[in-house]
Design a protein that fits this description.
Order of helices and strands: EHEEEHEHHEHHHH
Number of strands: 6
Strand order of the largest sheet: 2-3-1-4-5-6
CATH topology: Pyruvate-ferredoxin Oxidoreductase, domain 3
CATH architecture: 3-Layer(aba) Sandwich
Radius of gyration: 16 Å
Number of helices: 8
Strand content: 15-25%
CATH superfamily: Pyruvate-ferredoxin oxidoreductase, PFOR, domain III
Shape: globular
Number of domains: 1
Largest sheet: 6 strands, mixed
Structural class: alpha/beta
CATH class: Alpha Beta
Amino acid sequence: MNIMIVGVGGQGSLLASRILGRAALDAGYAVKVSEVHGMSQRGGSVVTYVKYGETVDAPLICRGEADVILSFEQLEAARWLPYLRRGGTVVTSTQSINPMPVVTGASVYPDALVEKIAAKGVRIIAADTLAIAREAGSEKAANVALIGLAGQVLGFSDEAIRAAITACVPPKFTEVNLKAYSLGAENAAAL
């Protein structure tokens, strides 16, 4: 299974990759987690890879190889779409974060990105994970809400993800993250 986690610096992609990597390890799979930082400290694009299976040779995911793209921001989902394999799934937050060209007025943020991705024949699951995390008690749990939104697409049981969240998140933040995960899963079931 090849999972790409894409977003903008500061959105929690590294924690999300640790949670998924832990769930895969606990399930007995060979796992490789790779972090590729862009201009993460300046709000730039960030991508991490989580690969798991009976054997995993290479840590990176090439164009057309991702089974799932988890995206914290819809423009990042569109940017990394060429990496999705035919029949793969994009799971994205509907959050919009203006990149520098939009901030400076040199460009305009594209509209209807979720609809444009779906129009390409791509299976897409989308919801406002920032609002879901806010409902859980902390916007910082949007990354875990996205994992909940992805649900069974990731190939893990609910119990495995909950155990991985508990293992990877500091104890004082575990409850809010578990709630964000649950609310994300509820949103996926309602779609």
